[in-house]
Amino acid sequence: MKRNPFLRVKIKSLAAEAKIIRADELKAVKYEDYYLQTQLRDHRLDVVRPEARLSQLAYQYLRGIPYAFVEQPKEDNKPIWSNVLPMVKKYGDHNATQDKLASWGKIPLPAEEVVRREEKAIERIKIRELVKMSIKQKELQMA
Prior knowledge:
Blueprint: H1 5-30, H2 34-63, H3 67-70, H4 81-91, H5 98-104, H6 111-142
Helix pairs in contact: 1-2, 2-4
């Protein structure tokens, strides 16, 4: 499927917006304007983040990336496909349907990918433990 650069630009813009808002939140805290900080945080979490997620889902769908590679949401955080569909239609697949998107979302993760991710998680745990041990050793040497 032909890629549409505008969706990629939208994703980058949303990421930049979140970064700018986060910086402004820190400034608001610095000046003890907690009302502004709360408003900025709420906007970032309740408006920008969901829009960025839906944009990413539309982008990955149009690229042909299996949904299982994109995310593994918990049962209470499944995407609302009716919100993704307008983006998919606008930026690429004009024949997309909500059923098509929902079936894309049900494709399971391949077994080898599950194993690879588990191995990666185990490796991260081992690294974390090594770091903790080295910190403890340094603390003992300083004492």
